[in-house]
Design brief:
The complex is a heterotrimer of chains A (314), B (424) and C (177).
Chain A lengths: L4 E5 L10 H16 L3 E5 L7 H9 L5 E4 L3 H4 L15 H9 L1 H14 L1 E16 L14 E4 L3 H10 L2 E4 L5 H6 L5 E5 H6 L8 E17 H5 L3 H35 L3 E3 L3 H23 L4 H14 L1
Parallel strand pairs in A: 1-2, 1-3, 5-6, 8-9
Antiparallel strand pairs in A: 3-8, 4-7, 4-8
Chain B lengths: L1 H10 L4 H15 L7 H11 L6 H14 L2 H13 L5 H16 L3 H18 L4 H12 L9 H9 L5 H26 L16 H23 L5 H19 L8 H31 L2 H12 L3 H18 L2 H18 L4 H14 L8 H10 L3 H24 L2 H9 L3
Helix pairs in contact in B: 1-2, 2-13, 3-13, 4-12, 4-13, 5-6, 5-11, 6-7, 6-8, 6-10, 7-8, 7-18, 8-18, 8-19, 9-16, 10-17, 10-19, 10-20, 11-12, 13-16, 14-16, 15-16, 15-17, 16-17, 17-19
Chain C lengths: L1 H35 L9 H20 L15 H33 L8 H11 L10 H34 L1
Helix pairs in contact in C: 1-2, 1-5, 2-5, 3-5
Classes of the chains: A alpha/beta (314), B mainly alpha (424), C mainly alpha (177).
The complex binds sodium ion (NA) (2 copies).
The site of one sodium ion (NA) has 9 residues of chain B, from loops.
Protein name (chain B): TRAP transporter large permease protein
Family (chain B): Belongs to the TRAP transporter large permease family.
GO molecular function, one term (chain B): transmembrane transporter activity
């Protein structure tokens, strides 16, 4: 048979020292091409489309492997339980949960629902609040502040629950909105904040880590089934290594980013466990209630996740 | 196969966008898996699914409302006060009216049509040859999309992430004015004196009234472009303010626009935008297919292997775009070539804003070159002198414009000085 | 024949004009609100985009009916008027076929995953359905509703091309007669 080609697409830069998905893509390509006769062609930086489009292309087996984060929960709603704020108190707990039984079960569920096989999980990182008005240590400090959120209902519910005023604004408009005072603050992973210079427009950051965003390394199952068992084994192993590579690069850029924004004048606050608990108490009920309504019978995934996290946190 | 359909379609006069779509549909419909017919619609939808793109219909609408409100005669009167008394005054008014028009509209074609209707007959009356008048009108209307606001600039900024609309807008101002100055000097040197055509008689109004009449419309570009430059509003929002201002002037100040003509203005604006946007949609679908098959990567590798210096690269780019501009509509050419050439240019140390303006200027020259030159078509539509005579008449202007392009290319300060000073 | 063409022209113009007016009004009011009251609606970006895509589809058909599309005329200019008109009539048939194929492509695209939510319109769609009691209004928030624009555009183009074809044929006959 003719040697097969894997088209691998993602929306991050094509680079491996600072780009989590870029790093994951490159190591995946190196391992698979080294150990099989498959060819891997990389399509970084959104060359084939945004995340939603990449998911659709993988479902059609147009693009065989895609690395996506937020778009997954649109195709497989159960995955949105990962976005429940203050679910994971640290990245390592998230890794334990996703690499354990919960992650496997979710992958199986999403495979049945979408035709996409989750080969492994990477990470986009924890999201944190920044603002230009005052230091936020407790939910009470959020009172009356306007926060830009993505136009996604779950984020709107979360900020409302915390006592802030959510304002949905497109990403491209964000710098404008921050500098003209249309909103007081925003929320994003540290790497995104630093790389886009948002720390120059904002004075305070609170490392509350409200939402943990996972990366999904997905393969079209139609394509996966066309591979030999030996090829499948290499592809699956390469994806797990790629996910871990992405996580490590992500951790690296977050740690570096926290230091750099401080060096450039931003005040960074790390809340205590008790303070985080206070945030969780205000934000979770609203979001969980909203999600239960949205998910219908998929709502069982909320409970499954909470059990797994409790077990992993022991 | 796909290219054969495209070429036959284009040669027999199938509208460009439809020829591209037809070729893609045949390829995707009959191509081997995993291609499917669905992909064409998916990628066309994606090509139009963008908020910044909405600046295009809004600026087209602002331009049409401005036209309808009798703005053309005010602009001409204003330009007349500025340059009408000089040698070859009428020709100069034609050029500088285009500069002012450029600040109101992002479209060269609209400028050719608005100013050509007035000037081609008027210049003939004053002893200019009809082909010369038509050629000058088309040649000077190219200034329109170079001076902000500009539809090509908005599209360029969409293609190349990291180059901002404000920076490109600022960068276009000096080149646009330089082009006007070069055309003016050329006209003053070559037009025979005995034309004695000073344009003072063009309007009966006193100068003070003409200046006042020009101020209100001129506030629009100052306000619109200014607010974009200050970062207060996005180009799309600014375009909606431009529409509102134009409607305000037309309905309440000049009272030339009746409410009953609004439906027609709206539908014509969307129709004229659709002609542009459907090309964007079709080319995005084609681009997706090219990317999917790694054609851009292969071209990039080839260029990097064969072109070693910045100067060679820039000259090759100019020749390529002049050549492509002969046959291709400017926006389609930009959508296909810029994603390939921009990274190479940046890699060779060309300033991204400089490169952007060079590409746009280059493609705007394509508007006056046959066989496919939209401004040429419009001017010919008004003048009816025959394509051959018009082409001969436009040749000198073409060389003047290429000269300005070379100046912009090898003296980058002409382009990037203004954005630098303003902090971009 | 004339009345049919005139009716189609008015219909296309209505669709294009309505979309243009709505797009302008939404963007203008929404940005005014953002810079004055500091608030804007969550559908203020997505809805104008989708309306524009519908508008483009109507505008495309209108432009076809009025021969406004950018076409490459250097070769066809050498032909005699009568031959050229016949060629353009043949082009109309090609455009008709393109429109039909595009309609199929657009239909396949929209039904494939059309029931996904358009994130910015979600709450507005739910609100509409709840306040009016008309459940089908939740479709406002589904991407398929808007993706269907391409299919409709293909159909409108086919109609415009067919009408243009008959118009040209009858003009050619009138010249010969
Ligand atoms: Na302009
Ligand atoms: Na002019």
């Amino acid at each position: 048979a003719q040697a097969q080609t894997i088209r691998l697409a993602h929306v991050d830069p094509d680079e491996w020292t600072a780009s989590k998905k870029g790093a994951a893509a490159h190591i995946f390509k190196n391992i698979v091409e080294g150990e099989t006769d498959l060819t891997v062609e990389l399509f970084p930086a959104g060359a084939l489309g945004n995340e939603d489009e990449l998911v659709a292309q993988a479902q059609d087996n147009l693009t065989q492997v895609v690395l996506v984060s937020g778009a997954m929960s649109k195709a497989c709603p159960a995955a949105s339980v990962l976005d429940i704020p203050y679910t994971f108190s640290s990245a390592t707990i998230a890794w334990d949960v996703l690499d354990g039984d919960f992650g496997d079960a979710l992958a199986e569920h999403c495979l049945a629902q979408t035709g996409l096989r989750t080969l492994a999980y990477g990470e986009t990182g924890f999201r944190n609040f920044t603002n230009g008005t005052r230091e936020i240590r407790t939910p009470a400090d959020m009172e009356g502040l306007k926060f830009r959120v993505q136009p996604i209902p779950l984020y709107v519910e979360m900020v409302k629950g915390l006592g802030g005023e959510p304002t949905p604004i497109a990403w491209t408009e964000l710098p404008n909105a921050l500098s003209t005072g249309v909103v007081d603050g925003q929320e994003n992973p540290v790497g995104v904040i630093y790389n886009n210079g948002l720390h120059k427009l904002q004075k305070y950051m609170t490392l509350d880590g409200h939402v943990y965003a996972a990366d999904f390394i997905l393969i079209s199952d139609e394509f996966y089934q066309s591979l030999t068992p030996a090829q499948q084994a290499v592809v699956a192993r390469a994806a797990r290594i790629a996910g871990n590579m992405g996580r490590s690069i992500q951790q690296w850029s977050t740690a570096e980013g926290v230091n750099k924004v401080q060096a450039e004048g931003m005040q960074v606050y790390s809340p205590t466990a008790d303070e985080i608990a206070a945030f969780a108490e205000k934000a979770q009920p609203a979001v969980v209630e909203y999600l239960r309504g949205e998910l219908g019978e998929d709502a069982v995934w909320i409970d499954r996740l909470q059990e797994s996290v409790a077990a992993a946190s022991q | 196969m796909i290219y054969a359909i495209l070429l036959i379609g284009l040669a027999t006069g199938v509208p460009i966008a439809l020829a591209i779509i037809a070729a893609l549909l045949v390829f995707m419909g009959y191509g081997e898996a995993p291609y499917s017919l669905r992909v064409v619609a998916t990628e066309m939808f994606k090509g139009m699914n963008s908020f910044p793109l909405l600046a295009i219909p809004l600026f087209v609408l602002a331009g049409e409302v401005m036209n309808e409100s009798g703005i053309t005669s005010r602009i001409i009167a204003f330009a007349n006060v500025l340059v009408g008394r000089l040698r070859a005054g009428l020709a100069l008014v034609n050029i500088w009216a285009s500069v002012i028009f450029a600040g109101l509209s992002g479209s060269a074609v609209a400028d050719t049509s608005a100013i050509g209707r007035v000037f081609i007959p008027e210049m003939e009356k004053h002893g200019y040859s009809r082909p010369f008048a038509a050629a000058l009108t088309a040649a000077s209307s190219v200034i329109g999309p170079i001076i902000p606001p500009s539809i090509p600039v908005i599209i360029y900024a969409l293609i190349v992430s990291g180059v901002s609309v404000p920076a490109l807008f600022l960068a276009g101002i000096v080149p646009g004015i330089l082009l006007a100055i070069f055309l003016s000097v050329f006209v003053m040197l070559t037009v025979k004196v005995d034309h004695g055509d000073q344009a003072i008689g063009l309007t009966a109004e006193p100068a003070s009234k003409a200046i006042l009449g020009g101020i209100l419309p001129l506030l629009m570009p100052v306000f619109v472009v200014g607010s974009i430059l200050l970062g207060v509003v996005t180009p799309t929002e600014a375009a909606s303010f431009a529409v509102a201002y134009a409607l305000f002037l037309g309905i309440f100040v000049y009272r030339n626009i009746k409410l009953s003509s609004l439906p027609r203005l709206f539908s014509e604006a969307m129709r004229d935008s659709a002609v542009i946007l459907i090309i964007i949609a079709a080319v995005s679908a084609a681009n997706w297919l090219l990317t999917y098959n790694r054609v851009p990567n292969m071209l990039t590798d080839w260029v990097l292997l064969n072109v070693d210096s910045k100067t060679t690269f820039l000259i090759a780019t100019i020749l390529l775009f002049l050549f492509v501009g002969l046959f291709l509509e400017g926006i389609a050419a930009m959508l296909v070539l810029v994603p390939i050439l921009h990274p190479i240019a940046v890699g060779m140390g060309v300033d991204p804003v400089h490169f952007g303006i060079l590409v746009i200027f280059n493609l705007m020259i394509g508007l006056i070159t046959p066989p496919l030159g939209l401004c040429l078509f419009v001017a010919e539509g008004i003048a009816q002198v025959g394509m051959a005579r018009l082409t001969m008449a436009i040749l000198p202007f073409f060389f003047v414009e290429v000269l300005v392009l070379l100046l912009l290319t090898f003296v980058p300060e002409t382009v990037i000085w203004l954005p630098r000073v303003m902090g971009y | 024949m004339k009345t049919v063409n005139e009716f189609a022209r008015r219909l296309f113009a209505l669709g294009a004009g309505l979309s243009m007016a709505l797009v302008f009004a939404i963007i203008f009011v929404n940005s005014l609100r953002r810079y004055t009251v500091g608030q804007s609606v969550s559908w203020g970006e997505e809805l104008p985009i989708y309306l524009t895509i519908y508008g483009v589809m109507f505008g495309l058909a209108l432009a076809y009916l009025q021969d406004r599309h950018i076409r490459f005329t250097v070769l066809t200019d050498f032909l005699s008027v009568s031959v050229r008109e016949k060629l353009f009539a043949a082009v109309d048939l090609v455009s008709f076929a393109t429109g039909v194929a595009l309609a199929f492509s657009g239909h396949a695209f929209a039904v494939r995953r059309g029931n996904l939510d358009a994130s910015g319109l979600k709450s507005a769609g739910n609100w509409l359905a709840e306040t009016t009691g008309i459940d089908s209004l939740v479709w406002v928030a589904k991407v398929g509703t808007w993706q269907y624009a391409i299919a409709i555009g293909g159909a409108l183009l086919a109609v415009a091309a067919a009408l243009k074809f008959f118009e040209r044929i009858s003009a050619i006959k009138a010249v010969q007669a």
